[in-house]
Amino acid sequence: MLRNGLEPWHLLVVAIVFIVLFGSKKLPDTARSLGKSLRILKSEAKAMKDENNVPAAHTPVAPAAGVTAETAMAPAEAPVSP
């Protein structure tokens, strides 16, 4: 049924429909915006891929001020009601 699904005259008809719908003045701006969006998408996808492949560096976390090893390990005291 769709042996030759996309022939050159199909692309011509689609191009004519786009020109009629959007006008010839807006097509360059639309193509430029689409290209910019695709570049951003590609760079973000690459950044996510690189982020997943790089092992996280071990950075020790400094304790809060006034916290010592003894107080950090001590159990919390329950409040005493009078």
TrEMBL record:
It is found in: Cell membrane. One of its GO terms (biological process) is protein transport by the Tat complex. Keywords: Cell membrane, Membrane, Protein transport, Translocation, Transmembrane, Transmembrane helix, Transport. InterPro entries: TatA/B/E, TatA/E. One of its GO terms (cellular component) is TAT protein transport complex. It is a single-pass membrane protein. The chain crosses the membrane at residues 6-24. Its main location: membrane. The keyword Signal does not apply. One of its GO terms (molecular function) is protein transmembrane transporter activity. Belongs to the TatA/E family. The Tat system comprises two distinct complexes: a TatABC complex, containing multiple copies of TatA, TatB and TatC subunits, and a separate TatA complex, containing only TatA subunits. Substrates initially bind to the TatABC complex, which probably triggers association of the separate TatA complex to form the active translocon. Part of the twin-arginine translocation (Tat) system that transports large folded proteins containing a characteristic twin-arginine motif in their signal peptide across membranes. TatA could form the protein-conducting channel of the Tat system. This is Sec-independent protein translocase protein TatA.
